[in-house]
Amino acid sequence: MNTSEKPAEMSTWHLVGLVSSFTDISLDDNGCKVLPGCKTMSIPKSQNADQARMNRISDLDDQVLVFKFKGFIHAIDNQCPHSSFPLKQGNVFDIEDLGNPNGAGIRCFRHGWRFDLFTGKADRGNHELNLWDIKLRDPLTSENGDVTTISDKEVWVRRAVQS
Ligand code: FES
């Protein structure tokens, strides 16, 4: 029997909350700090969903950072790819110079490197930020047929499968 983990087994989807549970940090007057409107979740690379814990301190290497900016949900590694500083202490900003009105980036608080939130590319060096896959799903219907809020969606994330 082959006991090695396959990529699909390592990329389980994880529920991180309803869209309405994320405060849009573009509405923050304090410079779009990620921290107040974000959720961090520890998802060890080789473990499954029931071992994940919301807002639990653990190795930065295992944490996903999820937040909403200008109406878009973003899910990224919480660990800066430069020197492992937590990106939840960073600032999010618009990237309008490339002609995309929805472009956005995150600036690491430690050394000021900036990363594109849609491509993961850094503004210097060859470091690249890991972006997580995101899915918005309709909430599950309860036993009596009610749905929490018809216009709300569940946010699911999974570690992107490396090709
Ligand atoms: S640790 Fe993030 S820029 Fe250096």
UniProtKB/TrEMBL annotation:
The GO terms describing molecular function are: 2 iron, 2 sulfur cluster binding; metal ion binding
Which cofactors, by name?
Answer: [2Fe-2S] cluster
The UniProt keyword set, sorted, is: 2Fe-2S, Iron, Iron-sulfur, Metal-binding
- List the protein's name: Rieske domain-containing protein
Query: Record's superkingdom?
Result: Eukaryota
Q: Which InterPro entries match?
A: Rieske_2Fe-2S, Rieske_2Fe-2S_sf
Domain Rieske: start-end pairs: 40-143
